[in-house]
Amino acid sequence: MFIINPVAGSGKGEQVVQNYLVEHPELKGSFKTYVTEYPGHAKELARQVATLYSESIKLLIVVGGDGTMYEVLNGLKDFSGIPLAFIPVGSGNDFARGCAMPLKPTINLHETLHDVSLHPYWAGKYKTDFKHDRHEKLFASSLGFGFDAEVASLANESRAKKWLNKARLKYLVYIYGLILMTFKFKPKKLKLIYDGKERDLTGIWMLTVSNHPYFGGGMKIAPNATINKQTFYITIVHQISKWKLLCLFLTVFFGKHLQLKEVETFQVTDLELTSDQKLTYHADGFTDSCYRCLVRKDPNARLVKRKL
Ligand SMILES: Nc1ncnc2c1ncn2[C@@H]1O[C@H](COP(=O)(O)OP(=O)(O)OP(=O)(O)O)[C@@H](O)[C@H]1O
């Protein structure tokens, strides 16, 4: 079964699948295809098809970007038994990078259907403020608090994003946001509780919680992260000068930012994060804000097509 976001990235998701099915007539009749019609539709579709066909779905193939994967994962919150694959046609595609899958959609689709096996994947679970457990959400790749989330929020709200996305120039919105936020951002005070430790931190620029190394479209924010059942990889950027922040965003693509003394990394099994001020965060690129966030691993392993 395919769930396709026709507007992710430059909008070629539907074409990729159609071309593939035309080139492989032997597959005719083996697939059902659903195309999203509005934001949030991938989550609804995933929940509906899982409810209707949970026993018969052999593989649910998500064709989109990280945002579409996030929606589908949350639609399948109560259906951890449905195997998943991700064909990257978005602009970031970090989930494909984290799973060591090809970034070229046609190659990825071919390998997904022929060569790559299913392996367990443990998503993250988070809930904000004092919401009930039933409002807990899942994230596939990462959660980010502070600077990067404010850049993402600015970019998501930008009216230019839609047409820049079509022209494959969405990164320009992020560069604009990055420069603007470098001057506007006010470092945060955070309280962290994890693995029996309590820490009060000041001057925090950003904190990310990672399931695998990548975020923000190929930045290796947690270079040592490996997909696993128990732990998240936390990266904290403490008080940092503006030029060093720029240096961080250049070196992070190679994972070399860990050499900066302002960058701290460690592993946790769960995390509680509290702030006196409203804190912007993103979950796989979706932005929102909160005062408190509880993060833990989803105890349910989901089968995912991945090489790593
Ligand atoms: N038919 C549609 N019309 C408008 N928006 C849609 C439609 N279907 C899905 N969406 C929305 O498109 C947005 C972008 O999707 P997605 O995040 O997958 O792609 P992307 O932003 O190009 O890639 P990435 O997240 O990897 O950077 C999501 O917020 C999703 O809710």
TrEMBL record:
An individual GO BP term: phospholipid biosynthetic process
SMART domains on file: DAGKc (SM00046)
Listed Gene3D superfamilies: 2.60.200.40, Probable inorganic polyphosphate/atp-NAD kinase, domain 1 (3.40.50.10330)
InterPro entries registered for this protein in UniProt: ATP-NAD_kinase_N, Diacylglycerol/lipid_kinase, Diacylglycerol_kinase_cat_dom, Lipid_Phosphate_FormReg, NAD/diacylglycerol_kinase_sf, YegS/DAGK_C
MF terms in GO: ATP binding; kinase activity
Pfam family, one: YegS_C
Keyword terms of this UniProt record: ATP-binding, Kinase, Lipid biosynthesis, Lipid metabolism, Nucleotide-binding, Phospholipid biosynthesis, Phospholipid metabolism, Transferase
NCBIfam families: YegS/Rv2252/BmrU family lipid kinase (TIGR00147)
Protein name as catalogued: YegS/Rv2252/BmrU family lipid kinase
